[in-house]
Amino acid sequence: MQLTLVPERDRLTIHVDEKRLDAAIATAFKDQVRSLIDNGGPTVTLDLGGVEFMDSSGLGAVIAIFKAMPEGRKLELTGLTPNVERVFQLTRMDTVLTIRRPAQASPRDQARGAC
Amino acid sequence: MNAEPGPERKRLRQVPPGRHPMLHRIFRADPLTVREALGYLRERFDGSAAEDVIAKVELALAEVLNNICEHGCQRDAERLGGRVHTPLIHLCVARHTGGIACAITDDGQPLPPACLDPKTLPYILPDPPDEDIIAMLPEGGFGWYMIQDLTASLSYFREGRRNFLAFIVPVTEPLIHESALAGEG
């Protein structure tokens, strides 16, 4: 499980350096991110920019991480690639979970995996 | 992008010009072998249809194969002396005119018929939005909903000890050689 932590003053960014968030690693991913969140700031950003494929096990792990956020702290997702975005849209989780998208340039103008 | 295969392996796996890709694989139900099979699917099928069509095939197959890994194992005292049987999966994928056809068979537990019933999402979004919605979200139950959304002509039967599941992911663009012929004319 490859994760990179970027702690800043008021936030913690966790880059997921795995190309596939699938059934093979969903449980390890969930457990590891949850343990890392314990020592972060008020806002945690989970950057999925490196994830090219996610199935419903990966989605379940992301939901579990949202549910495990301590009171008063926020979690947001960023860097959704097209195949990951598809899973959030199909399940309508994009309407419930906080997803931060780049302010400039609409997603279709951006090359896959950019930023 | 998947890891680049070696030149010899790549040559052997290349689809000859004018042919359509197909794939057949036999493997034990395990998340890592599933991952490997889907990597092979990408090697064989990338470029044979639009990227989002191949991505839908990959996602639908991942959901079906994960279900077999998770729910297919069976304990058959008479047959196996009480040992757990890990299903053996046969996967066949072929490009046809109307879409990419997938057939998956396994010798695991029978598929509960309710899985094929029309599915809704495993939760209802409250209107107006509820502050506590996150706490109530399910962490699973999305698989069959997604399979049904991504595929067409989903069908199933059980014969002897095997489950047979088939579906297509429709395509709208013509097959490679059809577009090449159109270009020649």
Automatic annotation (TrEMBL), chain A:
Record-level Gene Ontology MF annotations: anti-sigma factor antagonist activity
Domain of life from the UniProt record: Bacteria
Matches recorded under InterPro entries: Anti-sigma_ant (IPR003658), MlaB-like_STAS (IPR058548), STAS_dom (IPR002645), STAS_dom_sf (IPR036513)
Start and end residues of each STAS domain: 21-93
Any one Pfam family match given in the protein's UniProt record, by short name: STAS_2
Family stated for the protein in its record: Belongs to the anti-sigma-factor antagonist family.
Protein name, as recorded: Anti-sigma factor antagonist
Organism of this sequence: Paracoccus lutimaris
From TrEMBL, chain B:
Family matches, as InterPro entries: HATPase_C_sf, HATPase_dom
Keyword Transferase (UniProt): yes
Stated name of the protein: Serine/threonine-protein kinase RsbW
Keywords, ordered alphabetically: Kinase, Transferase
Gene Ontology molecular functions: kinase activity
Record's keyword annotation contains Kinase: yes
Pfam assignment, any one: HATPase_c_2
Histidine kinase/HSP90-like ATPase domain span: 27-166
Species lineage: Bacteria, Pseudomonadati, Pseudomonadota, Alphaproteobacteria, Rhodobacterales
